[in-house]
Give the backbone structure.
Amino acid sequence: MNNLSLKVSSRIVVLDIGMYIFRYVSDTPAHPRNSSLSLHQAPIGKGAVDFFPASGVVRNTLTMPGDCVVVRVKGAQASVLITEYHPEDESATIQLRIDQISTFPSGPKPSEPSPVAPPRTVGLKLNGHIETRGDVAVEDEWLGVPGTPLRLEGFSVDWQDQPKDVNLAYLCRSGKDSEPQIALAGQFVGTRRQAKPITSVAFALTGQRAAHYELSGQAVFGGQPPLDIAADKELSGPNGTEQLVALRLVITPKAAQVSPPASPWSNTATTQIFRKAK
């Protein structure tokens, strides 16, 4: 873009310790075409901030709907500087959504059992690349074979008929100290045809209706018994070097729901934001 005059605006969001997804969303087809939004740690708060961009996101910069960055705040409260760049002739604004990935257990169960049938699981299609077998797709069953040494080198999870206001986030690492690859439902993590193992995985539900669903399943690392998947818990073998060989994931709608309190992240009036426009 030669000789393009830009409008720049900034704001700061203050976050408590936890995990968050910053996502570029759009409710209309006419989203800003030449605009972008970047994320950096701001000097407010004593905590540290780590950024884990999704595939295709460069330098923590969101350029189109669907782009996202997972943000981890650790140690203490910290802040993120959000900077938007718009051409002078662009009137639309970027819609940024911030969802906290809950690390708290669900609320208490009803005191009396409900006389209804167990809820059905949602439809999940797992796609993966398995050593010597190539690309494999399964629905509601194991991706890979427990008890074999064949590496599951990469995978994606497609949520069929995915409802609004809830999403599945997942990550994997290809080494004990490697940076994680992070994605949302439908996106691929890991590798293909690189003989590179996955040594840890984690899964979480996010969004305003995340509390209406339960996440479960198992992951198997080479030579080890299955490990139960729990929301926001990173799983690996005892040495952190064992390779992932099989994966099974289940999402179940909770049968009896009491509406959870509104998330503070859906109401900008309750979020600490400091704005400075240039």
Observations:
- The radius of gyration is 20 Å.
- Residues 50 and 72 are 5 Å apart (CA to CA).
- Residues 6-102+263-277 form one domain.
